[in-house]
Design a protein that fits this description.
seven-stranded mixed sheet; mainly beta
């Protein structure tokens, strides 16, 4: 059974940084694209970033490009999201997800992912 566990969320002032981690267990981590999504109160879940199974390809939402960096450590079965220059509008629950198909590229569509973590809260104060 695949499990994804996020950590690293918290409360930070605008302009600050946080690093989210997502530890995966079960399955073959290094064969799957991983993604980060977020959902703010009263809003739909939205794509944040994705990284291909080789880590050579990354994809970002325009709203976070240049501020967030996704990376992965296949030896640790972990994907990271480094978030810099945080803004109040980045406040949301952040979820990591695993792409449904092995050896498939990065995708921004949440329907492309089949396993999801429980989420970690990120709150950015102004």
């Amino acid at each position: 059974q695949v499990q994804l566990v996020e950590s690293g969320g918290g409360l930070v002032q605008a302009g600050g940084s946080l690093r989210l981690s997502c530890a995966a267990s079960g399955g073959t981590f290094n064969s799957y694209t991983m993604g980060w999504f977020r959902q703010a109160p009263g809003k739909e879940r939205e794509f944040v970033a994705a990284i291909g199974w080789t880590a050579g390809i990354t994809l970002y939402a325009d709203s976070v490009k240049g501020r967030f960096t996704i990376s992965r450590d296949n030896a640790k079965n972990t994907v990271y999201l480094q978030m810099n220059s945080l803004k109040p509008e980045d406040t949301a629950v952040y979820y990591c997800a695993r792409r449904a198909v092995t050896l498939a590229g990065a995708s921004s569509r949440d329907s492309s992912y089949d396993y999801w973590g429980q989420g970690t809260q990120v709150t950015v104060s102004s």
